[in-house]
Design a protein that fits this description.
Strand content of chain B: 15-25%
Distance between the termini of chain B: 29 Å
Oligomer: heterodimer
Largest sheet of chain A: 7 strands, mixed
CATH class of the largest domain in chain B: Alpha Beta
Radius of gyration of chain A: 15 Å
Helix content of chain B: 40-55%
Shape of chain B: globular
CATH topology of the largest domain in chain B: Nucleotidyltransferase, domain 5
Largest sheet of chain B: 5 strands, mixed
Largest interface: A-B, 37 and 47 residues
Strand order of the largest sheet of chain A: 1-7-6-2-5-4-3
């Protein structure tokens, strides 16, 4: 199915430090209502877990020490304002394996889902997800700066991405 | 007191019979790695199903090895201990359900133990004949450092059942950092042993990888920065997944420098924690506690800080059920009681 280009809202942002990445994610977290899927993409060290920390902070998680990479155990669950299910597809070989973790039921139950390495499992993720692509800026010496490109269906994410972009302006 | 222990928090299924918290009558472990290799990774559904398929056979094998063949009737098990947190929920539930069935069938009480706390307890178990137990009064109170694939945390431990979290990783677990550095360097899996092997003969000062210590008083950890630094160092500025290693890269030097930097951070954080808690003893447990560079540095720390340092026998560093049975015994002695309504929890309640 071909969709008009403007059906997708997109916000390219940049962050100069992990602290700024946390702040951007915190603002997004405070605007979540439950049932959303945040699909994080990016290489090792791009800042996916850092982003998740900020998101959880915005969702009112009190004990931030709970948030860490779920690579080993595949799924972490945090008791924030809304339950946050933090998945990591790094060790998964196929999308069906993520489905087997029961994430669809979590969406239906109103939890917030955060999925690291989401590009590995994209075909089972809901169309309404928010994609966050984190990358190292090209042609710059290695450093802390990261590019963050947000994209999602305009009807779901348009207003929230505009608010985020506005808050940063 | 004869305790059956069950471990199924993640990839491994383990069953052990342990007498009085230290005498290991039998311990069985089925690593699901070969199973996952066939599918190219960990398959959660297969992991759960694999736990289900092997757990009763493992229980039978462990009982038989301990001298209690099933045809002789119900075994004289006094307590069934099961790791009910933290871990992958589907895997935990398989172990918990099996434990409940055994407890019900044998009329034995059931006790849930924390997998991470069991790692700490394993340092008190002398795991080889003549088995023995380092007395709690000798080890505790202590600062405990748990370092594994899934966990990196510091605790102030006052009894075998009470551990106050005083520091934790803000991103990757240290074992995971080893795994990811090994993946970047194309060394294979699991990262700990392959990095150590690759580091032999390498110069640990060749590359100045960052030591992320956070604020001067922080006991938290961050291993994301060093992972990125390894990526950049190994693959150059346009590092991306699939990018080749830089020509002429000395993998032994990179591996040794990485290991040195990680060990520096672990030792420094432990030193800070020990000073802050005014502790006379430290426990270092979990898979990374098997690392030789770390153990050598801990010996030095022990001398400079006048500290007693305890770590598990190498056979008990990685996930196993003997430590679950061992801690189950201790917690029972401390008065902890559970019943068949016990739940599994993905995270440790802190």
């Amino acid at each position: 199915m071909v969709r008009p280009r403007d059906a997708v809202a997109r916000w390219p942002a940049s962050s100069s430090s992990p602290a700024e990445t946390v702040e951007i994610a915190r603002r997004l977290g405070s605007r979540l209502e439950g049932g959303e899927t945040i699909a994080l993409e990016g290489d090792l060290g791009a800042g996916k877990t850092t982003f998740t920390r900020g998101l959880c902070e915005g969702l009112g998680l009190e004990d931030m020490r709970l948030v860490s990479s779920p690579t080993y155990v595949l799924e972490h669950i945090y008791p924030a304002r809304l339950p946050v299910h933090h998945y990591d597809a790094y060790r998964l070989a196929s999308a069906a394996e993520l489905a087997a973790l029961g994430f669809q039921e979590r969406i239906a139950a109103g939890a917030v889902l955060v999925i690291e390495w989401a590009d590995k499992v994209a075909e089972v993720l809901p169309e309404e997800r928010l994609r966050v692509e984190l990358s190292f800026p090209e042609g710059e010496p290695p450093g802390l700066r990261r590019l963050l490109v947000f994209s999602g269906l305009r009807r779901v994410w348009g207003a929230r991405l505009e608010a985020l972009a506005g808050a940063r302006a | 007191m004869l305790v059956l222990g069950i471990e199924s928090t993640c990839d491994e299924t383990g069953v052990a019979l342990v007498d009085d918290g230290c005498r290991i009558l039998s311990t069985r472990l089925i690593s699901q790695v070969p199973l996952h290799e066939r599918f190219g990774g960990v398959v959660p559904e297969i992991a759960s199903r694999a736990h289900v398929e092997v757990i009763t056979r493992l229980v039978e094998a462990a009982l038989r090895e301990a001298g209690f063949p099933p045809e002789a009737g119900p075994p004289p098990v006094d307590l069934v201990a099961v790791a009910h947190r933290p871990g992958l929920i589907g895997s935990l539930l398989v172990g918990l359900t099996a434990a409940k069935c055994m407890a019900l069938a044998w009329g034995a009480p059931l006790l849930g133990v924390d997998h991470v706390h069991a790692h700490i307890y394993s340092a008190a178990m002398r795991a080889r004949p003549p088995f023995g137990l380092v007395p709690a009064a000798e080890v505790l109170p202590a600062v405990s450092l748990v370092v594994s694939g899934g966990h990196t945390a510091l605790y102030a431990s006052s009894t075998w059942g009470s551990h106050r979290l005083i520091g934790a990783t803000t991103d990757d677990a240290v074992g995971e950092a080893f795994d990811k550095a090994a993946a970047i360097l194309g060394l294979g899996y699991p990262g700990g042993p392959v990095i150590s092997r690759a580091a032999e003969g390498g110069d640990p000062k060749a590359v100045a990888f960052p030591r992320t210590l956070l604020e001067p008083d922080s006991l938290d950890f961050s291993f994301s920065g060093i992972k990125t630094a390894v990526l950049y160092h190994a693959k150059g500025q346009d590092a991306g997944r699939g990018a080749p290693l830089r020509p002429g890269l000395k993998v032994a030097d990179v591996a040794a420098s990485f290991e040195e930097a990680v060990v520096d951070v672990l030792v420094e954080k432990l030193r800070r924690a020990v000073r802050r808690e005014a502790a006379a003893a430290a426990v270092v447990a979990g898979g990374v506690a098997a690392n030789r560079r770390l153990r050598a540095r801990l010996e030095r720390l022990a001398r400079s800080e006048r500290l007693r340092v305890y770590y598990p026998d190498l056979s008990l560093c990685t996930d196993n059920a003997a430590m679950i049975a061992g801690l189950g015994f201790q917690l029972w002695e401390e008065g902890l009681r559970h019943d068949l309504s016990l739940d599994a929890h993905a995270m440790t309640v802190r």
